[in-house]
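User: Here's a chain of 433 residues. Predict its fold as tokens.
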Amino acid sequence: MEINRDSYLNQLISFMWDGQVKVITGIRRCGKSYLLGKIFKKYLLANKTDEAHILSYELDLAKDIRYRNPLDLAKAVRNLVSGKDEPYYLFIDEIQMSDEIPNPYNPNGKKITFYDALNDLKSIPNLDIYVTGSNSKMLSSDILTEFRGRSDEIRVHPLSFSEYYSAVGGDKYEAFDNYAFYGGMPLVLSRPDDKSKMDYLRSLFSEVYLKDIVERKKIKREDILSSILDLLCSSVGSLTNPTNVANALNSRQKLIGEDTVSGNTVRSYMGNLSDAYLFEECKRYDVKGKNYFDFPNKYYCEDLGLRNARIGFRQQEMTHIMENIIYNDLRIRGCSVDVGVVYSLEKDNKNRSVEVPREIDFVATLGGKKVYIQSAYAFESDSKIESENKPFGLTGDSFPKIIVRQDIRKRWYDDKGVLNIGVIDFLLDRTLI
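Assistant: Prediction complete.
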């Protein structure tokens, strides 16, 4: 089954021959290698590129193990490309497998890494370089530091619902239910039954993600990392901060004395989970004051199937699941996303005027354009309708406003110009934002 990933392909095409190293990042097993080695290679071949001019090294395979030495890799590529007029493309898959080696000219100096090899190779004018790497081994912050502004990052996510539905077809409401349950990790689609899907998703956590984080970050309290992960999975879209998480863990596990976990430890471990692309932090933003709050913030899981697997496929609260799906879709579309905060002047129980904060689920910004979005599973009452609409009237601007709902199928605008749209319609319409 070939899955349409045109948005990422178009990004790669737009970056061709710009003099930068193209770095494909994202959570492991989300399709980075397939994007580069299958989809992009197919594009190059269809546009008359000689296959012999596409140099591919798969550092996780025994056949290319010698090229884990960055000096050997750089030498091999230079021997093939230097002094020739024809264009060449270099694909390096799983670059995190590259070794750090002593500098042969200064054994006690700084070790040589793949960053040194790639910075050297990018000086070759007829070579265009593309690499993928497992995110927890090769973080985007490392890339930006080591390449010193000489790289393009293509962030790959698990399948959006639009990509998922283009592959599975059929009844879109049934497809959405399956997507909300099993998520968008590409290999899930090839699993033949429910049990194999569940087993695959569980194994990703136990055998891939957690082991990577523990190994890279030298985690001392694996039990705490695991507990933080469980808590975040159970409360996607809820406001929290490291101090609250630490207090909850200490209380639930009755930790005392030296066993207690500090807010700083939790903050570090939550950062590790974010760096591994398992979760994203969504900050709260004062719409009128135009400043960010330090805390609390919200955390969303990169893939709902992974989240559901972690909590044993229980806690299927569709309000939070739908909110997480919408957040992920906005990020896949390339938006920066914040939680909006506006203030309403209201009377307290002593008839005093006080400012009451109201929340807009998402403030999505793309290319200088802004859209306000509320996620509402269903409007059970007039008071629910009023509570969802009220923050829109407090923004003081005329940017588009959307309420994404589960309980309608036909889109319509209310008398204030707010678009009400079904969640599936929203996810499949790529022109809305």
